[in-house]
Design a protein that fits this description.
By secondary structure, this protein is α/β, with parallel strands linked by helices. The chain folds into four domains: 274 residues, Glycoside hydrolase 38, N terminal domain (7-stranded beta/alpha barrel), CATH 3.20.110.10; 91 residues, no CATH class; 182 residues, Rossmann fold (3-Layer(aba) Sandwich); 179 residues, Rossmann fold (3-Layer(aba) Sandwich). Helices cover 46% and strands 13% of the residues. It has 30 helices and 22 strands. Helix 2 packs parallel to helix 6, helix 12 runs parallel beside helix 14 and helix 18 packs parallel to helix 20. The chain is globular and about 90 Å long. It starts with a strand and ends in a 10-residue tail after the last helix.
């Protein structure tokens, strides 16, 4: 295992500190530096540790005022002996010396120690890295080969900036690897799309964590802050840390195995994300908003300087540094005072740069917007997207409608122009602007009493007619996004007629739903799926399981398929009223188990009925409620009645979201016993609602739920195992509540529609860029993150 130590000393303006505050600051520095040098002094020959210092820390440790005060404090602290303080006097010089012997291998970080994912402008991100590189050159005489992101916070596209700066490797959170595309085997290092090697890492906070990972490979890194190191090296901790250190450096390991490393797209991630931890807390919201506005001011100054080089103001670098440093040093200041001081600084900066003089509209934010959006499709620019789906709220049949709605709303909130073309349900108008989404509904000429495929054909004709009408009235869309085979004909026709790239999200396959193709209808649907997949420029699926299914059934090339796990909207599972859906008297002491979904064979409700029978035979008193409609509703009702479950098992049919949420609120456990489930958005909804959740260990469900942490996994089709898991949740309610809480955080943090929107945009932008390069056209689309 590689040990990476991070050193970021909180922002301090030495001149403004009182004598007592200075003593406290120097004491903090001494404790942290002492722990580092203690570890270094005890390292055996041939062993190395990695050290990452933020630019702010390097600047502080080389500041003349800090140095003089630091030396005086050390001598005073060590009874007037300058010799005893000598090894600590010049910290940077000592680090440089240890670096020359390879006991310390330096890693660069950002200038400010502030997460780069929270910085909006690519120019500002580049500035953070460039200036950090300059500081390493100035004070250590070299540029590190590796880069450590603050908080391990990574966003797609940051690897491009690292590559341009010459970095060979960096680090990302090991648990977030399950969101990559494709998912690497054995949690190994990978190449990013821009050729930077990404090392899996873990945040080390205790010796127990270290022991659990002591067999980790040389490609695994443990990241530890200096403030934590000083506690861990006490007693036997020092020897335990040294005992797990790799015998080979990252550079040596990479040189040996780099040809074997796969390439993968990494999603947004940061340390602790997969455990539901937040990168920023709710109290940071106002400060982050102020930083975003200040960033726009700095970019406006950069734009003005590029047009009028003679104009001078405070250094743009100092402005960015001050901005991030103020945030990182904000804990000791009340939010109101901080915001007032920051506003004063922002106004002073704008005045120096005369941002209000002679500029169009007199607004720094306007200038900023124009400077980074030359044309409507540059960077994170506005995309025009036609989404085709046979169902969309309020016409909800299954999870597809919720998926399209969640994605469309998130992309609209991100500033994209979203048009959803879907089936018109009773009472809906032809056009509505809903939550920023342009919703166009169409009515097939063939009614739903017609043969199914004839109705689908008629629906596609109506959708294509609407597409033609929209294209004639306005500009062409940048992309067509089709959802499943039911809109295949319209999507393919529009692609060919208007030469518009086509992306298709495949939510499930007919083969997977039926465990094979057995009827003429299934064969027809299968062929339509194949045609849609063949004619799509890119395919999106929700899980590794689903990607493998497409490769097995349709022989799809791996590089054509991208994985974006579904999202969940927490508000959609929040009860809107305090009324109870389950009467207390009828509920009694019963444990209520709730499930919902389409009543079709692959949802596994026959297994749930049998599990209920098993629990009843054991004398367990449960009440099972299943909501949903489908062809097997009457069959399942009869099956439950014939099993002697009485009022202990109820199929209540279709319910709207409000009723479902009320039942969910009053329930004790949520169960989803599917035998086939590409993803399982209903399980995410249950987790987001904070309910103990049990799912089948199949398909995408097993990727959502981490067994024993965010829920429980049951064997598909095994009623005895499912009954055992239900009993466990009911019997050990404290453990169940803990899993429910952790599952809720996982659902909220990782499976957000904002992340799905960002990943979808990334795939679209890459496809558009590829097409323009392929055609030899100008690079109209610039990918920037």
């Amino acid at each position: 295992m590689q040990l990476v130590i991070t050193g970021h000393i909180p922002f301090m303006e030495m001149d403004s500190l009182s004598p007592e505050e200075k003593k406290e600051a120097y004491s903090t520095v001494e404790k942290q530096v002492s722990s580092l040098f203690t570890l270094i002094d005890n390292l055996p020959d041939g062993k190395s540790i990695y050290l990452s210092l933020s630019g702010l820390t390097i600047q502080l440790l080389t500041d003349e005022d800090f140095q003089s005060g630091w030396e005086e404090w050390l001598i005073d602290r060590r009874n007037g002996s300058s010799n005893s303080a000598k090894s600590f006097t010049n910290i940077i010089a000592r680090i440089k010396k240890e670096s020359s012997t390879r006991k310390i291998i330096l890693l660069a970080s950002s200038l400010s120690g502030f997460p780069l994912t929270a910085i909006q402008s690519p120019a500002a991100v580049s500035m953070q890295i460039t200036q950090s590189v300059k500081l390493h050159k100035d004070h250590f005489g070299t540029v590190p080969s590796g880069f450590l992101f603050p908080a391990n916070a990574y966003l797609p596209g940051l690897d491009k900036t690292l590559h341009e700066q010459g970095f060979q490797y960096s680090f990302t959170d090991q648990h977030a690897r399950q969101l990559s595309d494709p998912i690497p085997e054995n949690n190994s290092a990978i190449f990013s799309p821009h050729g930077v090697i990404m090392i899996p890492s873990m945040k080390l906070e205790s010796l127990n964590m270290l022991q659990k990972e002591k067999t980790a490979s040389d490609q695994m890194a443990a990241v530890i802050g200096l403030e934590v190191l000083q506690d861990l090296i006490q007693g036997e901790g020092l020897n335990q840390i040294i005992s797990v250190l790799a015998n080979e450096t990252i550079a040596d390991n990479i040189a040996r195995v780099h040809k074997e490393l796969p390439t993968a797209h990494l999603s947004f991630s940061y340390s602790g994300m997969m455990h539901g931890e937040a990168l920023f807390s709710h109290k940071d919201t106002a400060r982050l908003k102020a930083l975003g506005e200040m960033e726009g001011v700095i970019d406006a100054a950069a734009y003005k300087q590029s047009k009028s080089p003679t104009i001078k103001g405070e250094s743009l670098i100092d402005g960015m540094l001050h901005m991030c440093a103020c945030y990182l040093g904000a804990d000791k200041t009340s939010q109101t005072v901080w915001l007032e001081r920051f506003a004063e600084y922002s106004q002073s900066f704008q005045k120096q740069w005369k941002l209000q003089d002679g500029m169009p509209h007199g607004s720094a934010s306007d200038i900023y917007t124009r400077s980074i959006q030359k044309g409507v499709k540059q960077g994170k620019g506005r995309l025009k997207i036609f989404m085709l789906s046979w169902e969309f709220p309020p016409n909800v049949v299954g999870g597809l409608a919720r998926h399209v709605h969640g994605l469309a709303r998130a992309m609209a909130e991100d500033g994209h122009e979203i048009y959803v073309i879907t089936t018109r349900a009773e009472g809906l108008s032809e056009y509505e602007l809903v939550e920023g989404i342009h919703v166009h509904t169409v009515t097939p000429n063939a009614g739903q009493d017609h043969e199914f495929l004839a109705w689908i054909g008629s629906l596609n004709i109506a959708i294509m007619t609407k597409i033609r009408s929209l294209c004639e009235k306005g500009s062409l869309p940048d992309i067509i996004h089709a959802h499943d085979w039911l809109v295949a004909a319209a999507a393919i026709t529009a692609r060919e007629l208007y030469d518009i790239p086509l992306i298709s999200t495949i939510h499930a396959t007919e083969h997977g739903r039926n465990n094979g193709i057995h009827t003429k209808l299934q064969q027809s649907i299968h062929l339509l799926e194949e045609e849609l997949i063949s004619n799509s420029d890119k395919i999106i699926v929700c899980s590794e399981f689903m990607k493998q299914e497409l490769q097995d059934i349709f022989s799809v090339l791996s590089e054509k398929v991208s994985i974006i796990p579904n999202g969940v909207n927490v508000d959609s599972v929040t009860p809107g009223s305090s009324e109870r859906a389950i009467d207390n008297k009828s509920k009694g002491d019963r444990i209520t188990v709730f499930s919902w979904g389409r009543l079709v064979p692959e949802k596994g409700y026959d297994t749930l009925i049998q599990a209920a029978c098993d629990l009843k035979k054991q004398g367990k008193d449960f009440s099972f409620i299943v909501a949903g409609r489908g062809p097997l509703l009457d069959y399942y009702r009869e099956m439950a009645d014939n099993s002697g479950l009485g009022d202990g098992f109820t199929f209540i049919g279709f319910v709207n979201d409000e009723v479902r949420n009320s039942i969910l609120k009053d329930s004790d456990i949520a169960v989803f016993p599917s035998t086939y489930e590409p993803f399982g958005i209903v399980a995410l909804e249950a987790m987001a609602a904070g309910k103990p959740t049990i799912v089948s260990e199949t398909g995408g469900l097993k990727a959502i739920v981490r067994h024993g942490y965010s829920g429980l996994l049951a064997k598909p089709g095994c009623s005895a195992d499912l009954a055992e898991k239900i009993w466990y949740m009911a019997e050990f309610q404290e453990e169940a509540a803990k899993m429910a809480s952790q599952g809720k955080e996982v659902a909220r943090r990782i499976f957000s529609w904002e992340r799905v929107s960002t990943e979808t945009e990334r795939i679209i932008q890459e496809l558009l860029l590829h097409n323009h390069i392929k055609r030899g056209e100008k690079d109209e689309y610039t990918i920037s993150f």
